[in-house]
Amino acid sequence: MDMYMNMLDIMYAPTDWLTLMVMPQYVSMTMTMEPLPMLPDMDMDMDMGGHGMHMGSHSHSTDGFGDTLLTGLVRLYEDEVNHVHTGITFSAPTGSVTQKNAEGRYTHYMMQLGSGTWDFLPSVTYTGHVDRWSWGGQLLGVIRMEGANEAGFRFGDQFQATGWGSYRMLDWMSGSLRMLYVNQSDIKGHYNGPHNHSSPPDFQSNYGGEFLDIGFGINTVVLEGPLRGNRLSIEWLQPVHTNVNGYQLDRVGSLYVSWSLAF
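Above: the chain sequence. Below: its structure as C-alpha cells.
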C-alpha cells in the first residue's frame, strides 16, 4: 500500500501570542493485494455471509480531498532560550468515508479519505535553542468527538510523543534527528452497508497498535536574493519498533518534504 498526502498550511498571526492555521489535504492511496496459496479442495464459492470476498490478485485506489485541520497556536512561555506553546486543533470531516470498490461495496477502512468524525487534537510543544543547537518535544492527542461517522464506524483515539534535536552545520542548512512514538486504538463500530470480509484490512480489530520511528532530516533556508526566506525540509522516518493489533501490513518508512515561506 502506498499513500500520498499533499497538505497546504495557511497560517496567520493576528498577535504575537496567537497563530491561526487552516490546513486542507488531498489524499491518494493505492493497494495491491495477493492471495495466500489455497488448498486444492477449498470451495471457491464459500459463503461469506453476504459480505463478499475477493479471489485472486487485484489492485484498487482512492483519491480526493481529506479532512481539514483548523488550529489555534497559543504561546504559553518564551525567553531567550525556551519556547512553549499549545495547539488547539479541530479536524473537520471533509474527507469521504463512503469510498467503494468496483463491486459497489465499501472499500477497506484504511482506504477511506478521512475519519468522518469531528476530531479534537490538543498538543503542547516545547522548543529550545543555544548557538547552533536546537531541540524540542511535543505531546499530541487525537480524540474522536462522535460515536460513529455516516458509514457506521469511527477510528480509534491516538496519542503521539515526539522529541528532536538539530545542529546548524551551515548558516543555511541544519541536520535533525527525532524519535516518534504513536499509540492508537482499534476501530469501533462497523460498516453499515455491504462490504467485504475477505482480507485483514476488512476487520476492525486489525487497526492500531504501538509504533516507534526514528527520523533523519535536512533543513535548508535561502538567505539572500529573490527567494530569500524560502525553506525546504526533507525527512525520512524509519520504523524501528512495531506492535500492531491483529494482522497488518509491515511498515517500510515515510518521506516528508515541506516547503514554506513566511512574510
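The CA atoms of residues 97 and 112 lie 5 Å apart.
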